[in-house]
Amino acid sequence: MTDCLFCKIVNGDIPTELIYEDDDVVAFNDIGPQAPHHFLCIPKRHISTTNDLEAGDAETIGKLTLAASKIAKERGIADDGYRMVVNCNNHGGQTVFHIHMHVLAGRQMTWPPG
Ligand code: 5GP
Ligand code: ZN
Q1: pLDDT tens for residues 2-55?
Q2: 31 lines ligand 1 (CB under 6 A)
Q3: 46 catalytic, yes or no?
Q4: Which of 13, 16, 81, 88 has its CA 20 to 30 A from that of 5?
C-alpha cells in the first residue's frame, strides 16, 4: 500500500531502525513510547485491521507473537513481564491502519486499560 505509514517503514521509504526482521515480520521502537520499553511488531504485508484477517494469515499473526516473545527475552524484560496490545478501529484506539502488535514493558501495567 503506497499511502500507508508502516508500509513505508517496511519499504525503507521512512528510515527506521529495525530491532527485528524475518521474512514476514519487522519490529521497531514506537516513536511515542508509553513505557520504558515500547516496540511494535508488524507484518511486512499490508493488513489494515484485525477485521481483515483471513485463515491464511494465521502463520503471519503467529509470527508477530513469536517475534515479540523473542525480543522481550533479548531485552531482558521477559521475566518481569510485558503487555501485548493490538488495537482495532475507533473504539480500540487504532491510529495506524496496518496491523501492529504493541509490546510495552519496564513498568507496572494497570488493569483495566484506559
Ligand atoms: P495505534 O494507536 O494505531 O494502536 O498505534 C500506532 C502507534 O504507532 C502509536 O503508538 C504511535 O506512537 C506509533 N507511530 C506512529 N507513527 C510512527 C512512526 O513514524 N514511527 C514509529 N516508530 N512509530 C510510529
Ligand atoms: Zn501498510
Answers
A1: 799 999 999 999 999 999 999 999 999 999 999 999 999 999 999 999 999 999
A2: yes
A3: no
A4: 81
